[in-house]
Structures are given as structure tokens and as C-alpha cells.
Amino acid sequence: MLCRSADLIAEAHASGSGIAAFNVITLEHVQAVAEAARRTGRPAIVQISQNAVRHHGGDVMPLATATTAAAGGSDARLALHLDHVEDVALLHRTAECGASSVMFDASRLPDEENIAATREAVRWAHGQGLFVEAELGEIGGKGSAHTPGARTDPGDAARFVAETGVDALAVAVGSSHAMVSRTAALDLGLIARLRDEVPVPLVLHGSSGVPHETLRAALAHGMTKINIGTLLNVSFTRAVRATLAESPDLVDPRRYLAPARDAMTDAVADCLTALGTPGAR
Ligand SMILES: [Zn+2]
């Protein structure tokens, strides 16, 4: 069933169990997340990034409609979120495409402009009943939540949340985007300090590069939303490559997309199971 992100995130924040959010690109990605959520009995957020929208010709509707239809036809609890939205025109399509939350990303802007743009995005989104995630830019010259080696200062984070009114905050604690090896270490002490000083749920981006035990420890220290994208693409592409290598004359895409979808389903189910198992405090 299609749920509201705010409800899944609030439930995860209250229980400390965390909520995983998976970036989707193709219909097979969507089906993999829905099937893994059904199989494990765990809720999940399906998220479509602005880059994925661009891949589909700049229109969010085809993939968003496929996602809400897949969620509506599933017993699993699924929500739709738009990820890394920089374009205000796309932000303004959040509600009509069936998403109940959006990450508005003005982190490329200088500090004060990021705060002003994010505050305006929040004002609009709250008027639509939407949940908003955002991230700090280069406050204090420490880099954004996506700069390798960057760390979010808890005081800066608390100020950003107070001045913008965001509902969740992406923080820099050691992970980075598009890692294909699972070797990232997280600063668990910093996560605990952020949890103590920031009044909204914390979001970890770039979680594909983080081992499951470390993700469980991050949840135990106060992280709530875990964004996972690259892991699906590693599974998808590995399966396609293996199938085509085995059958060089194959032309029917169903013959390589089916194993790719199965591989993504297994990877997503592993994540959902791992995150549902309590970590060390
Ligand atoms: Zn991100």
C-alpha cells in the first residue's frame, strides 16, 4: 500500500529501527523494492532523484506513476520520495506525482542563500502537507553532506533546522555517494551528538558503501533514514553482465532484466533484514 513518508519516518524515529530508502531508475528497480519489502515484512521508501527524472526525459510522472501503482498493488508499506531536488519546478510537482516527501537540495548555494531557499521550499511544501528533507551547504567551510571527508557540525545543524523548519536533515558523518565497495567507516560519536542537538530525524546518504553492521550501529546512535542507491545498480549491472556474457546472442531484454530484478530484490531484502536487526548501542 502507498503510505506517507512522514508516518514511516516518524515510526522509525520513535522506535530506533530506522527506515531504508532506495533510489530507483527503472521499473525493475521499483518492483525489486516492492517485492523485497513484501518478502521481509518491512516498510521501505522508494525514491526518485532529480538525476533519474532527467534520465526519463525530465518528466517525473512515468516512473512516479509506476511506483505508486506498484505500491498500491502490494501488501508492503511503501512511500514515494523525491531525492536531491534542486529544480523548483520539480519540487512543485512533488504532490501531484504521488510523493509525500522531498529532499530539497540547495546545498550548492552559499550558506545564507541555502537557508533562504530551503525555508521557502519548506513553506511551500508544508502548505501541501509534504515532508521536507534538506542538507547544509558549506557552513563554516566544512563542505556539504556529500563532500568526502566532510563532517556536519551539530551546532550548525541545529541552527539550520531552526531557521528553515525542515522535517529531516541529511548529515555528513563519513559516507559518500556512489561507493561500490562497502568500506566506509562512520563517526558514531558525531551521530550521537547530532541526535542530541538536532530535533528532527537524521538522514544518511551514500549508505551503499557502509557495511550492514556499521549501518546498524548508526541506527543505534541516532540515525533514522538510510539512503541506498548504488547497491541496487551494482546488483543490476553485475547480473546483466553475467547473463550477456553467458549468452552473447541473447536479444530479448526480459531474459537479462529478470535476473537483474532478482539480484536487486535479494540485495534490498538483505538490507531490510539487516536494518531490522537491532545493532550495538
Ligand atoms: Zn545524496
Please render the helix and strand layout as text:
Blueprint: H1 5-15, E1 19-23, H2 27-40, E2 44-49, H3 50-55, H4 61-72, E3 78-85, H5 88-91, E4 101-104, H6 111-127, E5 131-135, H7 154-164, E6 168-170, H8 188-197, E7 202-204, H9 212-220, E8 223-228, H10 230-246, H11 253-275
Parallel strand pairs: 1-2, 1-8, 2-3, 3-4, 4-5, 5-6, 6-7, 7-8
Helix pairs in contact: 2-4, 2-11, 7-8, 10-11
The chain binds zinc ion.
Determine the fraction of residues in helical runs and give it as a percent range.
40-55%
CATH superfamily: Aldolase class I
Strand content: 5-15%
Number of helices: 11
**Could you tell me how far the N terminus lies from the C terminus, measured between alpha carbons in angstroms?**
33 Å
The tally of structural domains comes to 1
* Shape type: globular
Could you list the spans in which at least 5 consecutive residues all have pLDDT below 50? none
Total strands: the figure is: 8
SS content category:
alpha/beta
Bound molecules: zinc ion
CATH class: Alpha Beta
Q: What pattern of helices and strands is seen along the backbone?
A: HEHEHHEHEHEHEHEHEHH
Oligomer: single chain
Q: What is the residue-averaged pLDDT?
A: 93
Could you write a compact summary of the structure shown?
The protein is built from eleven helices and eight strands. By secondary structure, the protein is an alpha/beta fold.
